[in-house]
Amino acid sequence: MAEFTHINEEGRAKMVDVSEKIDTNREAIACGSIFMQPSTLAKIKEGKMKKGDVLSVAQVAGIMGSKKTSELIPMCHNIFITGSDIHFELKEETGEIYMEARVKSTGKTGVEMEALMAVTTAALTIYDMCKAVDKEMYIHQIYLLEKRGGKSGHYKKQK
């Protein structure tokens, strides 16, 4: 079982030991979209959703999601996040809210999962706040756009 990094000698799950790794500045950017009826997006934009300011709540939820990643993904290390932010782009013609999350840390392991969790949590929050008026919403294409730092260096998704 030596070829698997998250499996111990007994064939059971383990968390990889990163204690020997050097601390480096790390950053990850993830993105995703939620699609909805244009009328739902208009209500969000105009602040007319009954549950409140959808994007403000999704912003906070996404940041909280990035901070809670290790509690939900079994093999993720609990890391010290030095920055977490989400930007929303409303595309009225397609009924899309596009999201990008940027998460930063200085440490021994990357923040890709934290950036992905931020986008996912923000999208699910938007869904939750709008589901009463739009049953057709769907979350689409959550993925890593870019990462920096660590042994593997810089990665940028090819378009």
TrEMBL record:
TM helices/strands, residue ranges: none
Pathway(s) the chain acts in: Cofactor biosynthesis; molybdopterin biosynthesis
UniProt EC number: 4.6.1.17
Reaction(s) catalysed by this chain's protein: (8S)-3',8-cyclo-7,8-dihydroguanosine 5'-triphosphate = cyclic pyranopterin phosphate + diphosphate
Keyword flag ATP-binding: no
Keywords for the protein's UniProt record, in alphabetical order: Lyase, Molybdenum cofactor biosynthesis
Stored Pfam families: MoaC
Domain spans labelled Molybdopterin cofactor biosynthesis C (MoaC): 15-150
GO BP of this protein: Mo-molybdopterin cofactor biosynthetic process
The protein's role, per its UniProt record: Catalyzes the conversion of (8S)-3',8-cyclo-7,8-dihydroguanosine 5'-triphosphate to cyclic pyranopterin monophosphate (cPMP).
Designated name of the protein: Cyclic pyranopterin monophosphate synthase
Organism this protein belongs to: Irregularibacter muris
